[in-house]
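User: My notes are a mess, but here's the protein and coenzyme A's SMILES. Can you give me a structure?
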Amino acid sequence: MFASPLAEDAEIRPLEPWQAEEFAEHVVRVRADISPWIPWAATITDASSAREFLEMYARRQAADQGRLYGIWIDGVLQGGTVFRTFDPVMLNCEIGVWMGAAGQGRGLVTRAARQMIDWAFGVRGMARVEWHCDPENARSVAAAERLGLTCEGTLREAFVMNGERRGVQIWSLLADEWRAA
Ligand SMILES: CC(C)(COP(=O)(O)OP(=O)(O)OC[C@H]1O[C@@H](n2cnc3c(N)ncnc32)[C@H](O)[C@@H]1OP(=O)(O)O)[C@@H](O)C(=O)NCCC(=O)NCCS
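Assistant: No problem, the inputs look usable. Here's the predicted complex:
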C-alpha cells in the first residue's frame, strides 16, 4: 500500500513505528556501509531504539515537520530517505538519504530524492530544498550534484560524527530552478 516504484524490483514507501524490528535488522545489516556518515547508524541497535527513532519521525510527520521513507529491493529494506526538517511556514525543508552497499550505484536514491523534491515543490509549495553532507562524503556530494543542487558553502566543524568535529556542506535547490530543469 502507498508504495511508489523506483525500479522493477525496488519501491519507496513510508517507514513507520510498527516496522521497528525490520528497521533494526536493516540497520544492523547496513551499519558498516552508512556509519561513517549517519549518526543514528551507531545508536540504533535493537527494536526498542529503532522504534524510538521511528516514533520521533512519526511525531514530526504528525506535526508536518518531517517524514521518513524506506526503500525496499526485492522486498528487503535496503535504504531510505527523510525530510529531516520540513517547515511549512518558511517553506524550507532538508532531504537526507541512505542506502546499504547492496543497493548503491543504481540511481535508486536519486530517483527517490526526485520524487520527494517533486512533492515538496509541486504539492507542498516549498520554496527551498536543502541537502547537508560532509564535504568528504563523495557519494553524497555526487548525488547532490546529480540532482542539480547548488553548493552554498561549508559550515566549518559544525557537526560531531563519531567523536570528531566535521564540516557540513550545504546544498540547495529553489523551486524555480527545479521547474526550469
Ligand atoms: C549517499 C548514498 C545514498 C548514495 O547512494 P548511490 O547509490 O550512490 O546514489 P544514487 O541513487 O544517486 O546512485 C548513483 C549511482 O548509480 C549510478 N546509476 C545507475 N543508473 C542510474 C540512474 N538511472 N540515475 C542515476 N544514477 C544511476 C550512477 O552512475 C552512480 O554510480 P557511481 O557512484 O558508481 O557513479 C550512499 O552512498 C549512502 O547511503 N552512503 C552512506 C550514507 C550517507 O552518506 N548518506 C548521506 C548522508 S549526507
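The chain has a mean pLDDT of 97.
User: Great, I'll file this with my notes.
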